[in-house]
Design goal:
- The complex is a heterodimer.
- Helix content of chain A is 71%, strand content 4%.
- By secondary structure, chain A is mainly alpha-helical.
- Chain A has 2 domains: 4-82, Winged helix-like DNA-binding domain superfamily/Winged helix DNA-binding domain (Arc Repressor Mutant, subunit A, Orthogonal Bundle), CATH 1.10.10.10; 83-136.
- Chain A has a two-stranded antiparallel ribbon.
- Chain A is rod-shaped and about 100 Å long.
- Chain A starts with a helix and ends with a helix.
- By secondary structure, chain B is α+β, with helices and mostly antiparallel strands.
- Chain B has helices at 29-37, 39-45, 133-140, 144-162, and strands spanning 10-12, 18-25, 52-58, 65-71, 77-88, 92-101, 104-105, 109-118, 121-129.
- Chain B is globular, with a radius of gyration of 17 Å.
- The N and C termini of chain B lie far apart (48 Å).
- The chains are: A mainly alpha, B alpha+beta.
- At the A-B interface, helix 1, helix 2 and helix 6 of A face strand 2, helix 1, helix 2, helix 3 and helix 4 of B.
Chain lengths: 136, 163
């Protein structure tokens, strides 16, 4: 017997199935509606849905004839992939932004030093001129 | 800044329609604002290990647009695009945004980012406002592609431990 986690990972390994899940994350829908954006036949989509259902990643309603597909969030706790992705994306980005801000701060500090040095030189030049005028 | 800044990212859902993120940065707010709104800066940090930033265009004017095109781990391209509604440098920026993936276009949502200077550092507060709860939940769950990666990493560890 295959363990449930292997089934889950096998189901997630396919990009079309991940796209189906991303769509279902927005709300339940019918197979026809689900198939629309994909360049694929209905039977092909149905096959993918069966794999997802077998892996416990989605469930399909029995109440209506159109059997709405919906996500089964419980399974995602097992793979820990849910919601955490959103956080991970921003965490990674903001950590990189931290490093980049250090670079920007260093640049700004360097510019400030140059400006101060420039000002000092200018002051010295002015003083020298004044002195020159006085002595001349 | 002398005091150590708590840089933990906080994510909350203040209402059925919103996602809020807060994050402290150890830099004055004009730098944080510029780093997040100017293309020559954004290209230096935005993206992640899994996503490569291919195109980064920003027209920072009210009514101006922006477009970030990213290559995802499976080789397809995802686009984040929007239009600026309000720009008050370095305090606040508001824009409407959309995510485009092959075969899927997300509903539009509004993003408001405020930059507060606190003790020489900056607190960034980003609020994402959706038109429906369903849209909001979909956005929160949109990390699915990305979230699978760490799960795979851990799976590899588990398998290695078993061998």
């Amino acid at each position: 017997m295959i363990d449930p986690l292997s089934l889950t990972f096998a189901a997630l390994a396919d990009p079309t199935r991940r796209a189906i899940l991303a769509r279902l994350a927005l709300g339940e829908t019918s197979v026809t509606e689900l198939a629309e954006p994909f360049d694929m036949s209905l039977p092909a989509i149905s096959k993918h849905l069966k794999v997802l259902e077998h892996a416990g990643l989605i469930s399909r309603g029995r109440e209506a004839q159109w059997r709405p597909c919906r996500i089964a969030p419980v399974s995602f706790k097992e793979v820990d992939g849910w919601l955490r992705g959103f956080r991970r994306f921003w965490d990674e980005n903001f950590n990189r932004l931290d490093d980049y801000l250090e670079e920007l701060k260093a640049n700004e500090a360097a510019k400030a030093v140059l400006r101060t040095k420039g000002n000092i030189k200018r002051k010295i030049r002015v003083k020298e001129k004044q002195r020159g005028r006085k002595s001349g | 800044m002398d005091v150590k800044v708590d840089k933990a990212l906080k994510i909350t859902t203040p209402s059925d329609l919103e996602i809020a993120m807060t994050r402290m940065f150890d830099a004055p707010r004009h730098l944080v604002f510029d780093a997040m709104t100017q293309p020559q800066h954004v290209g230096r940090w935005f993206g992640c290990d899994a996503f490569t930033l291919l195109i980064c265009e920003i027209d920072l004017r009210v009514g101006g647009g922006y477009r970030f095109v990213m290559r995802t781990p499976d080789g397809s391209e995802s686009t984040l695009q929007g239009v600026y509604r309000e720009i008050v440098r370095p305090e606040r920026v508001v824009f409407v945004e959309q995510i485009l993936m092959p075969g899927f276009t997300s509903p539009e949502y509004q993003v408001t980012s405020t930059f507060d200077e606190i003790g020489g550092g900056t607190r960034l507060t980003t609020t994402i406002l959706h038109k429906s709860k369903q849209d909001r939940d979909g956005h929160l769950n949109s990390g699915i592609e990305n979230g699978v990666a760490p799960a795979y990493d851990r799976l590899a560890e588990v398998v290695a431990a078993m061998a």
